[in-house]
Design brief:
The protein has 457 residues and is mainly alpha-helical. The strands form four sheets. The chain has a three-stranded antiparallel sheet with strand order 3-8-9, with helices on one face. It has a three-stranded antiparallel sheet with strand order 4-7-10. A hairpin with a 2-residue loop joins strand 5 and strand 6. The radius of gyration is 24 Å and the shape is globular. The termini are far apart.
Length: 457
Amino acid sequence: MRSPKSGYGQFPSELGGQLLASEAATLKYLGQVTDIPVPEVYSYSASSKNPIGIPYILMSKAQGWPLQNVWTTNPSADRLKLADKEKVMLQLGQITWKLAQVRFDHIGSLFEENNSVKLGECMSRGHILHERYSLEELPRGPFATESEFYSSLTTAMVHHAESLPLKPRCFVAPIPSREDYENDAAHIDACKLWNGFVAIGDKIDSAENRLDYIVVADALKDLIAQRTSVYPTHTLPDPFPLHHPDLSVNNIFVDDDFNITSIIDWSSCSSVPLAILLAPPGLPQSRHALSEELNEVFREGYKEASRSNCQGERKSFLSFNALAILEDSEFSWSLIRLLTFDSTDDLRLFRTLWNTVHDSNYDLESFITSQRHLPHYVRLYEEVQAEDRPITEIRKSEKDYFSNTMDFTVARNLTVASSWGFRYRPNLNPFQNAKMFIADPKLWAWVSKAKEQRDHD
């Protein structure tokens, strides 16, 4: 049984009921129109007005066992052979083809009404997670076009950056990722340096970091417009397929031969632009990009299913740009994760999007630096800065955080080098013509080495 306490506890009760109702409607509909292995819904209630007194979904138990038992985020604990991963990816490609056949004329989430299914408000992760459900005056659909959908998500990103917590994301200083370091010790050192750097000046929820995300969100509008024009799908009948927003190892069940036996957790499911559906999933978790080798197996699974099943109108749908979109999915993979804040390195995602659209003569760093000097963003910075924590509180937090004088000194020196506090104040920035500061793995490795040499002297 699934209830707000077990699956929707982070949301207000009314929203939790909506999510539950939509998930139940989605599972029932998929069970009726596809053979995708999903739990069978026996009964559900979106409110507390029932004999047990809480909203619930009563459904069948997923057969098999969760893929997370063997496919983990820790490379040293990953016990899944490449051949088994390929088998899973091939099946996910086939399941994606089946979802591509479940199409609608608008973008939204499924609900039941009078014993039939209808599209309602879009309950996508980009509209509700990270407290975005609280954003007022945000268009929530159903959306008639993909441009309306993307406009809503970029608007959500702007409003999020203006008023909601951004922790743990700092645009110019992404959280160090284990995959960028040779060993655990180097990664731990980088994380300590990162924590110290963002602690100075309360960087994460500061006006400067917020403005960086607003600049990025505004830039995304143009990037999306240019990219979606390459593969237009608006002339298709019912162009928006259903999409599982979190095909992670937690939600994929398999048997001992790695046949997929169940796909669970369809919360926040909605219809989407075709390009979002056709992007390979991230595994083991959604934010993790797969190797190109595994992505190719996913694509082959999709093509294999399309060759075996396409006939008539469905064949024309798939031949109309679908295979081209499937082969060119890096943009949409990065886009949806940036828009939904499903990443630990938003800068890397934005760079991928930027480089896909722009040639090498227009570099990302120059663009962001120039935007920071525009009067519009300078004025907005001053408005947002008024909501920053008082400097006395920030200094106290810094004092409480740092127990080591050297760590404090390093973090302060890096802050000065970054021009933090002056990047949106061009008239006061003595380094306004300097190259854009980015705290990347090379920086943390260099600082760690410098500290180590100093300790040995």
